[in-house]
Every structure is written in C-alpha cells, then in structure tokens.
Design a protein that fits this description.
Layout: E1 12-19, E2 23-30, E3 36-42, H1 47-83, H2 87-97
Antiparallel strand pairs: 1-2, 2-3
Bound molecules: zinc ion (ZN).
Length: 101
Amino acid sequence: MSDLCVICNGETKVIESRRLNNAKRRRRECLHCTHRFTTYETLLKDPDLEKILENLENAQWHTNHLLDHLKHLIGGIKELTHQNLSPEDSDIYVENSGIEL
Ligand SMILES: [Zn+2]
C-alpha cells in the first residue's frame, strides 16, 4: 500500500495512527495538496506460518507432557530419598509406581 498522496502522488505525513485488532490504521495528509486519506496495514496470513504455529503447539504439548513425566519421576525419586530405601527396594518401588526409566 502506497503512502503517497492518492490525488497528486506527493509526499504525505501521518497525522494519526491507531492500532486495530490485526491492523494498523494511519490517517495521512499530503504535504503538497493537504488531501487527507487513510491507509491500513495488515499482516497477511501465510499458510506456511499457520503450519509452523501448529508444529510449535505440538512441540509445546510434547514438552509439557515430558515435563509432567519428569515431575512425576522427580517426585518419585524424592519420595524414595525420604524413605531411605535400599537400591534394591528402589528398583521395586519404581517398577510398582509404573514409571518407565
Ligand atoms: Zn496531494
């Protein structure tokens, strides 16, 4: 979108700038003929970008899943430490808790 005057093609200045949901609205005034007009600046929705966002969300889900798993694992280890079990007992405990090491 051109920021030149739509009437005389002259240079313009921004007299008002307002942010809308996904766009930027600019009120411009021509420095030559003082004609005023409005421009909108929007981000094009790229299908590739959408795919990337989807992949990021999936990655986020996997990370959260892994973190939950680790928290359970750490929780189990803390419990074992508090119980002062022998290494043999720990193996049994971990097996019974269903945690895969
Ligand atoms: Zn003009």
